[in-house]
Amino acid sequence: MSRVGVGVGTAIVALLVLGALGCGGSDEEAGTAADGTLVIALPSQPENLNPIADDNLYGGNQKFFNGLLRYSQDLTAVPDLARTIPTRSADGRTVTVKLRDDVKFHDGTPLTSKDVAFTYNAILDPDSAAPMATPLDTLDKVTAVDATTMRFDLNRADPAFYDKLQIGIVPAAALQGQDIKTAAFNRKPIGTGPYVIKEFQPGGRIVMEANPKYFRGAPKIKRIVLTAVEEENARVALLEKGTIDAAGIVPKLAGRVRRNGNYNVFEVRTADARVAALPNGDPVLRDRAVRRALSYAVDRQKIVDGALEGAGEPAYGPIMKGHWAYSPAAEVEFDPARAGRLLDAAGWTRRGDATRTKGGRKLSFTLMYPSNDSVRKDIALGFTAQMKAIGVDVNLEGLTFDVIEKRQDRGATEFGYGTPYDPDIELYTLFHSRFAADEDPFTNYTRTRNAAIDGALEAERSTLDAGERKQHFVRLQEELANDASWLWLVRLRHISVVSKRVKGVDPQVEPHAHGFSRGTSWNLEDWSLDPKR
Amino acid sequence: MLKLIARRLALLPLILLAVAAITFALTEISPFDPVDAYVGAESGVTPERKAEIAHARGFDQPLHERFGRWVANVAQGDLGTSVVAGGQPVAGEIAARMSASIALVGGALVLVLVGGLVFGVLAAALRGTFFDWLVRTLCYFNTAAPSFWVGLLALYVFSIELGWLPAGGTSDPRAVESGGIDLSHLILPMVVLAMTQYAWFTLFVRNTLLEVLREDHVQFARAQGIGEVAVLLRYALPNALIPFVTLVGTHLSELIGGTILVEAIFGWPGLGGLTLDAALGEDIPLLLGITLCASVLVVLGNLLADVLYRVMDPRVREAAT
User: Chain B partners of A442 at a C-beta cutoff of 8 Å?
Assistant: First the structure.
């Protein structure tokens, strides 16, 4: 009797398993057939492929779309769907764009100015609750003047506006009258881009195929598969096994991939900095002398050599070295003796090797970091050890941002920030006192209220003159260093691993977060695949 | 028996309603903000605008009204839409991942049952020997080793060093046809998931069996001169299996919970990873949908265990009739 019972149970479970397996029985033979395929592993699958729904100006496109402009390898804005670089009126409040007339969407409908107007007006439409409406707050509306001419009406001259003309253009006909948030289009995008969506397997793979009618010529690699591999060790394992051809990896695993020999390992320069935000509400960090002393006490190069295994450079401010607006004046020398003198002068005294105190209070604070990020953890560990050397006690806590944002004013947080594009878009909301008390914790997180910083930020966005803007950015960087609410630590190099079979990889300088239209894959459509392994 | 099944299935909607009500209440007291989830975390949308969205979407209605509306929609087969799924219907997203989950959990369950029984019985039969010691040591070792570490180790050894098995995903990503699950891709995640539970079961089978072997009816069978193998399989095992079956039913939920880590290591597109995404994305409709699905599975698993229990234990069967 009992054996029958177990037999039934096993049979039922076995049936369930076989039922699920049934549909996939013949895949193995098909696996070897597709030779023109490039498999790229991403840490997570993009949820939504609709550029209107994207929350990041640098996120969209994903190779299904084109913007009006795009960045070349050296980050100069060049025409993409636009025929030429747009023209600005004398007051800077009207921008006119001429559109190419030879571009078709994947479904065969021609691209016209109506599609461009629809894309931008949909983002501005309050009903679509589009996150990108915030960076587009200088834009009032877009009007289609004729089939290939659009007029952008701005509420003020916006020197960073060309950065905002790179959003992927969607076909009005496919989305008109729909709820953008729930449109089926979000996973079956129709664009003008070099690749056409073929398959979206939730949690699994995204398959894209070359657009044979792409207006700049069909891409050379015919098929690209994006597969989501969350675990950083597993990504390297898949590279070693040859299951995937390209992936981003953490610096400490780069050596293993180099030894494998089948891959080119690119150390891509980025604007992506790691920075400790020192909130002005914290009982210890509200003391500016403490904040300034911390900056002298950090041996940034040592963190680069340790936590980043050399894949990075010291960071002293929000703008990267080599950027047109960069000022070396904000650079600080590693000088622990000076840090000690500053702390002594501010009353934080030390006995022997103990933690410094002032009036019975210990010089101690918490440093929070997102627990799923091993690189940030290593940086935080290196920082903590260096602080200990000057008598500052740092307690590390690995948390999620949901928890961190609720402890905004208690303790420091390690953030990642930085774009190599126009600094205005990110820096204004990060540092202006307007955002010190607003609902969103991640705008002016430290609650800094500094008139000199506000002044520099307002001045840089009030003119279109690049030389004049640079002066204001230089002043901004000096004021930020004086205020020291943000302790800039290091700027990463992103490690991009691409199979040696792939030719034509020529990485762009990368921002903190980006989609497929930037960084290493900015020219994906020009890559080619050598048939030999 | 049919009466039992009918009664349990009739109770299912009530259980689901209770689970849904509790989950709904939990999301209400959690810090999850449905408006934030709706517009995206880094949107910088103004508070006034958020209030408008909350009003337009009905997020500001009282709890019971929202729950009533949700139940009415679910009754019509509409589980809502998921932000994490790019605004697509919750039901479709769950369905797309269901087969991968069933294959993984079902396969691991079979391994746990078969492995636990075989090794548990052998260890009991050979108690005190080196084999018994080995089985127990491996079980303790496995209980102590985190599944995450075991998973990565298995990946290195069997995929990379030995090259026997593929390293993740449900099928070769290069394959033109997709959507299927290759057995070769299933083996590693299935075994690693099974290893989160098999140690416990093996030890349980072994110890229960040793207890039953000391009971009078077994001693009596031995005294009659019946061989030790027959005593073990025909007289002791059926009695030892009775609690085993019930516990398999209740441990199904632990096996399902274990998929979250295993799916992350092996890039397995099942419901475990989706649950994590839903929680991190504060995606309440998706969380509710997954909770409902998991509840159905657990209720059915327990029902199956109870049915088997009756089939196997004449005392319960007679008491029920």
Answer: 42
